[in-house]
Amino acid sequence: xxxxxxxxxxxxxxxxxxxxxxxxxxVGCECVKLGAPAVCVPxxxxxxxxxxxxxxxxxxxxxxPKKVHKHHKKKK
Length: 76
Fold this sequence. Notes:
The protein is of the alpha+beta class. It has helices at 2-17, 44-50, and strands at 26-33, 36-41, 53-60.
């Protein structure tokens, strides 16, 4: 009986650690605000700053950095 309990615990632990989430995704929270659609934000503090409530975890993907355009000076 003890072996069965240990085996069940090991299987449950393996199932929890090997989820299908991508390796590079950050865990964020789904911020819900009345009158606005739900948005995935990086953390609870960002959601509170927007005046919303964090309801569920989500896979937060940071936006890609913007390209920097060089301004050329006119030659004299």
